[in-house]
């Protein structure tokens, strides 16, 4: 779920309709106050606040299993392979929905109704997940994660569509950075608070167990309910702005044509391999990381949860900063190479040394943020604009397919071989991404592509292309 923001920001720059700079087109009469005027910055800041919290519940609850890894396994009497099914079930519906989410928002529901519907899926899915724990029915927990997954990724698309509709230009870059930071904040708060919530419930109930787990997860569902309220408020504010400013409802701008896949260039397929090889070594590791730090480094559960969340903590402030850096310097392939090599070094440190794991995890956090800023924009450099929707949809689709398969494989490896073999497995996945990055560098160089051009060279080429077209 982790990079729909980068995808939509590229699609939205050209297609988005902004409120900024528009005059009030409402009926003449007493002027509205700034906070009530949809064309005023203050009103749009209020809207931005609700936009940022729209996905908070989804990101908070996505990693509930990771935050309560020990408790879920013990209370539900699971092995690790069964535990990782909770992540696999989230990813399975998004293998398909990454193609359909934008279409449903554009052509079927509309942005306002679609956002509310996807928020409902997230909320209902979390409630079913919690109910499964309360009733000691693991299959019901799996159903809940599946329903949760139906809404999760599509809600991120809706969130970014709202952003494109209300902001543009430099404002939009800042807005996407703030939304991404809020998403990481949700994940961080989950990692660090859910263990405490579980312990408090256990003290009230009298003992740990599936009832305590279910109540804890039901409390987490309150964040999804809060996000649903934000969806309803956003729908009201957007409808009101539509009436006042006489504008059309926002659209995702995505054009999905599966027949475009056959025309994808070779560099794009290498980007897909990098995407899958890299992210399957990040999210499944975080899902299993808490027990790893307890067993190998003798951390307390609270310390293990804290270090397991450091990737998200670093990503919150680092993503906008590193994105700005990549925008100013260019050289995307080099930055992706740096991110992959650093991630490989982090996994090797965790696997083969007993160095303070805060070093490796901090390095992993910076690398994760850097790769997101440098990798996803490269798609726009290798495919024409009319194929962007298909390319990004396909990229997220195979990413979710990879996450689902690797989540199951990681659980099985941990049950049968242990954490050392699992870390070697994750390192091998990153090595596949590294090979693909090196190939991408040489393929781009031999073809005279612009994936690794500096920002100044790209600006010059774009200026020359604009002059030629005129």
What does this structure look like?
The protein is mainly alpha-helical. The chain has 21 helices and no strands. The chain has helices spanning 4-15, 41-54, 56-62, 64-67, 69-75, 80-91, 94-109, 111-134, 138-166, 169-205, 210-245, 266-279, 283-297, 301-308, 310-329, 332-352, 357-375, 379-382, 388-416, 419-447, 455-469. Helix 6 packs parallel to helix 9 (138-166), helix 7 (94-109) crosses helix 9 and helix 13 packs antiparallel against helix 14 (301-308). The two termini are 41 Å apart. Residues 4-28 have low confidence and may be disordered.
Helical run tally: 21
Contiguous runs where pLDDT drops below 50 for at least 5 residues:
4-28
Distance between the first and last residues' Cα: 41 Å
- Based on DSSP secondary structure assignment, what is the total number of beta strands? 0
| Class by SSE composition | mainly alpha
Major sheet summary line: none
Order of helices and strands: HHHHHHHHHHHHHHHHHHHHH
Roughly what percent helix? over 70%
The radius of gyration is 22 Å
Q: Roughly what fraction of the amino acids lie in strands?
A: under 5%
Morphology: globular
Average of per-residue pLDDT values: 85
Please outline the helices and strands.
Elements: H1 4-15, H2 41-54, H3 56-62, H4 64-67, H5 69-75, H6 80-91, H7 94-109, H8 111-134, H9 138-166, H10 169-205, H11 210-245, H12 266-279, H13 283-297, H14 301-308, H15 310-329, H16 332-352, H17 357-375, H18 379-382, H19 388-416, H20 419-447, H21 455-469
